[in-house]
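I have a small job for you when you get a moment. Would you make up a two-line entry for one protein for me to read? No commentary is needed, just the two lines. Write everything out right here, beneath this request.
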Amino acid sequence: MPKGYSLHIALNKVDPVHYGSEKKLDCCVDDATVMHDIASNLGYDEITFLKNDTATLKGVADTIDAYSNELVAGDLFFITYSGHGGSIPDLNKDELDPSSPVLDTRDETWCLYDQQIVDDELNNLYAQFAAGVRIFIVSDSCHSGSVHKGLRNETNIVKVTTDIKQMKEKRLTNDEARIIYFEHKETTYKDSRLEKKSVRLKDVPASVILLAGCQDDQSSYEGTNGHGILTEYIMKCWNDGAFNGSYEDFHQKIITTMPQEYLPYQKPNLNFSGVREPAFTGAIPFKI
């Protein structure tokens, strides 16, 4: 029988020594608790929760690495992130992929407690999973449209600079990201680390689906009900397990259920990498 494993990462604050302040958010641990409860209610075999100062680069990478050695074909790995998203310069130039509909010059990141983890590094971790493993990622963060290293598949993005009703953004500003990057360039973000090549998308043996809070050049926001907007509408559309449809159906339902005036600011993205298996993409989300 296939097994389900999940990892839930949440940061309401980060290390002020690295980031310049705690960059406090209000909803992220509660977001992760929602995802934890979905996995628990569906009978997942093993669930891990990393929050705030336990959600370090080493803690996250080691946990994903350990699961990659444990899961076998047919198993499901459900990984969620709620926190700030960032971006840094693309030093290995793999964002300039001619097959991408939108060329990019930056790597998208998750802002873990002690430092950022880059999409190349996440992709290389997912590439360690065996063929036939299914990986479902939910990223309620800014710049998250391809944070698993997939190609951006939304090209009709509307550029808007004002906030959604002054809600709190879950991102580092470009100025903050630039300052943090250059302050730690010779230590944390060394060229030798960031110039490493990412495994090519077609060479990832697992099947990977990302449900992202927004496009790469958009922000994800905290809503008014104590959750990130993506998490809020996942909850509404999942409806305690009453949802019946595919991952693509679920993504579309989220988009049509959200207030349409949100979409120019935050349009959730669905992205695929690795081996695209119809039996996975056509299945009901979250279910083993």
In short: The radius of gyration is 17 Å. Confidence is low (pLDDT under 50) at residues 97-103, 149-163. The chain has nine helices and nine strands.
